[in-house]
Design brief:
The chain has about 280 residues and is an all-alpha fold. It contains twelve helices and no strands.
Length: about 280
């Protein structure tokens, strides 16, 4: 007697895929909302933010790090270059990260889950540091003698007065999530792809580093701390296994059910001979 398996319901599969997509969108939006709301808790700590800025500036000089002004002077060779840098800072950060996550979700579900978890840990750690260590960016620090290129040349994502800026906390410079997210994007694409040119993804965090420093929105140490936090998150979150990386776009990346199903014995096809019992 030949056994037959019932084919999966395509409509049910599509409904499950939609539910997973909606769940992921709500989860990512919720995490982002919590992060933005949490950052605003330290907006009123102006004096502490400037004291910390002076400490960071002195620490960089003691460590003999290059001055942020050297990068800014390079950008100031032409209005067009500094305008491009401001635009990169304002317009690339979130869209690039969103497109990166969407591509992983559709093409590399296992890597998507890994990346989402790493970014969540990194962002949560950054939020805790923002609250514990409010920091005014170098564009506000008189000793740095730097220009607020966003306000002077545009575009900018910040209000002219930090105290009245209801869209962003300007005293959350450390760590630089612009750099941390950009570095994770590059590492994620390198891990998820096999092209021999994939190392070129590292140009994105490199450009981001030059932009955030040259526009005087971050110190060198902001990027260094972001790198340390990202490294800790990568050590904490296990890398995806090979079977996950090869899964299709409708794979359930939230559970190990797919692996469990693969481990079940496969039914014999009708053409296979039945081995006689001994």
């Amino acid at each position: 007697m030949t056994s037959q398996t019932t084919p999966a319901d395509p409509a049910a599969g599509r409904r499950a895929a939609r539910r997973r997509l909606i769940r992921e969108l709500l989860l990512v939006a919720g995490l982002f909302t919590v992060y933005k709301a949490g950052r605003m808790l330290s907006t009123g700590r102006t004096d502490e933010a400037f004291r910390n800025a002076a400490r960071i500036w002195d620490a960089e000089r003691a460590l003999h790090l290059p001055g942020e002004g050297a990068v800014q002077r390079m950008l100031m060779h032409g209005d067009a270059l500094v305008h491009v840098a401001n635009t990169y800072y304002a317009a690339v950060h979130f869209p690039a990260t969103a497109l990166f996550l969407v591509w992983l979700y559709l093409r590399r579900p296992g890597h998507y889950l890994w990346t989402r978890r790493v970014l969540a840990v990194l962002t949560g750690a950054a939020l805790a540091l923002h609250l514990a260590f409010p920091l005014a960016p170098p564009r506000m620090l008189g000793d740095a003698d730097l220009i607020d290129t966003g306000q002077v040349y545009g575009p900018t994502v910040y209000g002219a007065a930090p105290a009245t800026d209801t869209m962003a906390n300007q005293f959350a410079a450390m760590p630089s999530l612009h750099f941390g997210w950009a570095l994770m994007l590059a590492l994620g694409m390198i891990a998820a792809t096999r092209s021999r040119w994939r190392a070129l993804w590292l140009l994105h965090p490199l450009l981001t580093l030059l932009v955030v420093v040259g526009t005087a929105n971050h110190y060198w140490l902001d990027a260094i701390v972001a790198t340390v936090l990202l490294g800790a998150a990568l050590l904490l979150i296990p890398r995806p296994v090979p079977n996950d990386t090869d899964a299709g776009p409708d794979a359930d990346v939230e559970t190990d059910a797919g692996a469990a199903v693969r481990d079940l014995p496969r039914p014999r096809r009708a053409a296979e001979p039945v081995e006689a019992g001994r």
